[in-house]
Specification:
Order of helices and strands: EHEHHEEEEHEEEEEHEEEEHHEEEHHHHH
Distance between the termini: 57 Å
Radius of gyration: 23 Å
Helix content: 25-40%
CATH topology of the domain at 5-61 and 120-199 and 306-379: FAD/NAD(P)-binding domain
Length: 463
């Protein structure tokens, strides 16, 4: 540890990966370290185009309200900038959601999400991180492993390699943060250093995204800014979504569970859209002009690495973002989950004694489960509602599945329930909100909703 020069916790911190988790981490560390180095394998261009290492970037990334709150706190003015270049702020009532066999009533909730391409969001955040005077970005640079003290109990740096150059090292580092995503090599590197294998959970859903950008038809008329048609388990496995992005375009995604994947040819893509539980997505795109190719991205399922359960773990190393917990992207929780983990790291850093990082790695990894509880529980309950998904259901799963279906049925006509659901979905409030006495009574005395399961964007739009 190098002391608290100029009130800092250390001289040098290193972040692996320029994912959203990595970018937010670099911003937080810039307050606590004299220098922060952000290392990225891909070339980082100064534009919003997708980079090679992020195939998921070409698919929808609506930013939930809690994530937007955190980013606005870290980067004041960010969303004004985003809206100026084409991001669409959307209230819950601006969206048509078909879920559990019903259209949700279009109630005003006060919950605002932002819709844009992931490339645009990353680019604008990356610009702000690069503008920080004590942050250095090293792109086209691959990390090959960790450097440690002779007894391997503390990480002191990283081994680096750039194509066409000899391997080098970055040593004497006070803190290393792995934000390199789902493909993180930390589990293997720790095993090579003599640490036990990190326990891992995979909820295998074999989800595939098939997406295409369309020009928004000038004559298109609908009472929504975005629309989502969700599968209804146990039989339904197909999902369709239309989100507005910059340059007056739509990002359209067709997703399927359990290998029920959309084709990548024009006719097959449209036919899959036609097969959804409601016609809105198909009707929107059947005559729309494509603005790009059909792209596909497959993930095996939600994955969690339980670093908190390891009996030993090195000091001065933190792992966060998708490197710890990679959620089914259908629920839009990934960036917000990462932002919550970064804010936990910020809290842990601020609670450190001046000039010391001792115990930080252990405290952080032990507290991460509390941050992941809500997004993991929400993703798991949805994923495991498909009977074919393998794995033991947690205690009370049957009741929770029933209760969730009741909530979604009430949301077809009850504006108070929609408001509570929106706040939980956007991670602004605890799921306990949905068990308040008023809502619990409505669930227990509910009758099946009438007249809101058919039609085009069939829910009413309340003002």
């Amino acid at each position: 540890m190098s002391g608290d020069a100029k009130g800092k916790l250390g001289k040098h911190a290193v972040v692996l990966g320029s994912s959203m988790a990595g970018l937010l981490t670099a911003r937080v560390l810039s307050d606590q370290f004299e220098k922060v180095t952000l290392i990225e394998r891909d070339e980082l261009r100064d534009d919003p185009e997708p980079r090679k290492g992020t195939p998921q970037i070409q698919h929808p990334h609506v930013l939930l309200a809690k994530g937007a709150q955190i980013m606005a706190e870290l980067f004041p003015g960010l969303f004004e900038d985003l809206v100026a270049v084409g991001s669409t702020p959307a209230e819950m009532s601006d969206a048509a959601w078909f879920h559990s066999g019903h259209w949700l009533v279009r109630a005003k909730t006060g919950v605002i999400a932002y819709s844009q391409s992931r490339g645009l969001l990353d680019w604008k955040v990356r610009q702000r991180v690069r503008a920080l005077p004590n942050v250095e970005v090293m792109d086209r640079c691959e990390v090959k492993g960790y450097l440690t003290t002779p007894d391997n109990t503390r990480v002191t740096g990283v081994q680096l390699h750039r194509k066409g150059e000899a391997e080098t090292t970055l040593d004497g580092v006070d803190l290393v943060v792995d934000a390199s995503g789902r493909g993180s090599q930390t589990p293997q590197w720790l095993e090579q250093l003599g640490y036990p294998r990190v326990p891992q959970t995979l909820i295998k859903t074999d989800v595939c995204y098939t997406s295409r950008i369309f020009h928004r038809p000038k004559n298109h008329q609908a009472n929504w800014l975005m629309v989502a048609i969700y599968a209804e388990p146990p039989h339904g496995k197909r999902v369709g979504m239309v989100f507005p992005i910059e340059k007056d375009r739509w990002l359209v995604t067709l997703a399927g569970y359990l290998k029920d994947h959309a084709p990548t040819d024009d006719a097959g893509f449209l036919e899959y859209a036609r097969s959804l539980a409601r016609p809105d997505v198909y009707d929107a795109i059947k005559d729309a002009e494509p603005a790009g190719p059909i792209v596909q991205h497959k993930i095996p399922g939600s994955q969690r690495r339980h670093y908190d359960q390891m009996s030993r773990f090195p000091e001065h190393l933190v792992v966060l973002g998708d490197a710890v917990c990679s959620l089914n992207p259908l629920y839009g929780q990934g960036m917000t989950s990462a932002a919550l983990q970064v804010m936990l790291l910020d809290k842990c850093l601020r609670n450190q004694p001046p000039g010391s990082l001792t115990g930080l790695a252990q405290r952080f990894r032990k507290q991460v489960p509390s941050v992941l509880l809500l997004p993991w529980m929400m993703a798991m309950s949805q994923d495991m509602s498909h009977p074919e998904v393998e794995g033991a259901r947690p205690p009370g799963f049957g009741f929770m599945s029933w209760y969730t279906k009741q909530i979604m049925s009430l949301a077809a006509h009850d504006e108070d329930v929609v408001r509570s659901f929106a706040n939980v979905q956007h991670m602004l409030k605890s799921p306990a909100t949905l068990f308040s006495p008023g809502i619990l009574w409505r669930v227990l005395t509910a009758r099946p909703p009438e007249g809101n399961s058919a039609g085009v964007s069939g829910a009413s739009h309340s003002s």
